[in-house]
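User: Hi! I'm working on a homework problem where we have to compare a predicted structure to a textbook description. Could you give me the structure for the chain below?
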Amino acid sequence: MSMLGEQFHRLKMFGSVGRLDLTPFRAPTALLMALCLLLPLQACGYGSAEYQTRRQGDSAPHSVNQPAPSVFGPDGLALFGNNKKPTEPGAGTGIAVNSYLWRASLDTISFMPLASADPFGGVIITDWYAPPEAQSERFKVTIYILGRDLRADGVRASIFRQVHSPDGSWVDTNVEPKVGTDIENAILVRARQLRIAGLE
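Assistant: Happy to help. Predicted structure tokens:
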């Protein structure tokens, strides 16, 4: 029987209510606690301390230490956008894609109802739209803005088309690739107009 078990049995047998003798367990517990407290201090350096000094006649202190490298790089961590000056106008807004392409995309499909618009992912999804002149068909558009630069390959448009079948349900049909290209070109023309207006 273990030492703790013997002490418990002795207390139970004699009916004494007292304190358990935990003396044999104090040394390992103290050692474990000391290790837990000293382990975080292991990360601290043991190097010699260097302090800022002043040269005779100077009023500003000069640092002897070199700046420590950062885990987040030389510019630090930018939580709410980029701290650097944008290289292209329209690229430095609070959205993660080119602002001219974003606004031009919204302007181009403004006649369609929006289902979703994610400025950080650069995705715009419309809801189904039936043109007034052709109520037996409807269209849905998904626009992908692919980067922060205003480039011709920076936007993609996917068009979906459904026609009304005789039984009353909507059936998917093919769309000519030219329709997607025409929407992309309209977006690029509008983005160019917005950029020129922004530079004036």
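For your comparison, note the following. The first helix runs from residue 3 to 14. The chain has a mean pLDDT of 76. Good luck with the assignment!
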